[in-house]
Amino acid sequence: MALKTKEQYLESLRKLNLKVYMMGEKIENPVDHPIIRPSVNSVAMTYELAQDPEYEDLMTATSSITGKKINRFTHLHQSTDDLIKKVKMLRLMGQKTAACFQRCVGMDAINALDSTLVEMDQALGTEYHKRFIKFVEYMQENDLTVDGAMTDPKGDRGLPPHKQADPDLFVHVVEKREDGIVVRGAKAHQTGCINSHEIIVMPTQTMTEADKDYAVSFAVPTDAEGVFFIYGRQSCDTRKLEGGDIDVGNAQFGGQEALMIFDNVFVPWERVFMCGEYQFSGMLVERFAGYHRQSYGGCKVGVGDVLIGAAALAADYNGVAKASHIKDKLIEMIHLNETLYSCGIACSAEGTKSASGNYLIDMLLANVCKQNVTRFPYEIARLAEDIAGGLMVTMPSEKDFRHPEIGKYVEKYLKGRADVPTEHRIRILRLIENLTLGTAAVGYRTESMHGAGSPQAQRIMISRQGNLEAKKELAKVIAGIK
Ligand code: SF4
Ligand code: FE
User: What is the C-alpha to C-alpha distance for residues 237 and 35, in angstroms, rounded to an integer?
Assistant: First the structure.
């Protein structure tokens, strides 16, 4: 089976024996939990759209391993065209879900590992790439959702892993056995982990020899012995327990982050992709981050499209669509959003072939892309809030709107243009609220800041890749300085 249907995906998730905790309780059926389900639906959309002939070109690809048709989320990019299609796919997914659809982290992890492991094997004489390709083939053949787990809790940021008061603040190898390794630690804010079949763990930063035990990468099923999850709260998440569909803003889709614990987890050798090769930890981190920074030039733009559309509708419903300052604000939002997209496309078009044959993004441009993502969605959100007006955060609830006695007052006094149903106005304002302040704001705002690395991480990469010396030479030549 190369492509799973949405239903097969949901069924496969139900079969997993996940250990999930939320708000102090163990969740027996995460798939159907009202707080979790919208995030499951977002991932399910990656399966649904892959079945749709209209989106086949973006959503599917030909496997470089088996030659079969596979979901692009499991693909090793074989050209700059593949890299561009990835960005377009993520924009499409953002438009369809208006949320984080989570499946990109695994795609970015396999692409980063693919080239890094070939270079590592060549340099150190190891044989990790072969077993890694077997894992990717298994992922493609079963159309799996794989989580890419990089961010450790990190404890005292001023200390390296081995100097931490608690050695478990970074995932590390606690035992090497003949048949595999035992690992302990945690990964923080893990996107989509509960909606995934497998987890690929990678080191969180460049490791030195003293931190060799922390230079570890491997894959484990999400329901492996010793793995468990503590669900992350999102702003306004308990609105999903209220039963209505207006106040949540986006009743169908959402994102998901959780704290993932590895409590002495056994990993057989065939699933270990790095174990002590600290010299290549930095390359793996940079490449994964690079791919995920490229990703944001697609996903955030797609969500931005929905937010811009919602702001334009709010203006329509308020009867101010023709006001010049409104038109200008919408133009500014489009300009900022398309600038992000341009960065995503540019770092893809400038991609290059790696040692393993898959394609790497242009690192400088990918980092510029993400640096802009740490800013522009905030401005787009600010303009959306400006256009929406204060009612977005002061409206009575859906229950009041539906109330047999007071409902008519909500209907009457929340009316905008006479020809637009009050409910439409409420719904669009709640959507803007969701994207800027509610559950989707995790993915659209704070994740724009910190996801794929906080702003300073990009600035370090920009300073490394910016080639200031070459620019100085250019200036000297023009100025006539010998
Ligand atoms: Fe994908 Fe964007 Fe979510 Fe990252 S933030 S997993 S790129 S949708
Ligand atoms: Fe992210």
Answer: 7
Nearest residue (by CA) to ligand 1, atom 3, is: 100
pLDDT of 273: 98
Of all ligands present, the nearest one to the C-alpha of 150 is: 2
C-beta 191 within 6 A of ligand 1: yes
- CB 76 less than 6 A from any atom of ligand 1: no
- Our answer on whether the CB atom of 45 is closer than 6 Å to any ligand 1 atom is no
What are the tens digits of pLDDT across the range 370-408? 999 999 999 999 999 999 999 999 999 999 999 999 999
- With a 6 Å cutoff on the Cβ, whether 377 touches ligand 1 is no
Top-level class of domain 283-466: mainly alpha
Q: Degrees (nearest 5) of the Cα angle 198, 199, 205?
A: 165
Q: Which residue owns the Cα nearest ligand 1 atom 8?
A: 100
Give the pTM.
0.98
Element holding 228 (H helix, E strand): strand 227-231
User: Is 3 within 8 Å of 51 (Cβ atoms)?
Assistant: yes
Q: What is the pLDDT of residues 74-120, one digit of tens each?
A: 999 999 999 999 999 999 999 999 999 999 999 999 999 999 999 99
Q: In the chain, where are the structural domains located? A: 283-466
Q: How far is CA 431 from the centre of its chain?
A: 20
Digit-coded pLDDT (tens) for 145-174: 999 999 999 999 999 999 999 999 999 999
Atom of ligand 1 nearest to the CA of 300: 2
CB atoms within 10 A of CB 242: 14
User: Cβ distance 279 to 200 under 8 Å?
Assistant: no
Q: Is 102 in the pocket of ligand 1 (CB under 6 A)?
A: yes
How far apart CA 454 and CA 204 sit, in angstroms, is 13
Q: Please list the active-site residues.
A: 100, 104, 191, 257, 292, 296, 299, 447
Q: Residue 182 pLDDT > 80, yes or no?
A: yes
- Tell me, in angstroms, the distance from the centre of ligand 1 to residue 273's CA: 24
pLDDT tens digits, residue range 260-275?
999 999 999 999 999 9
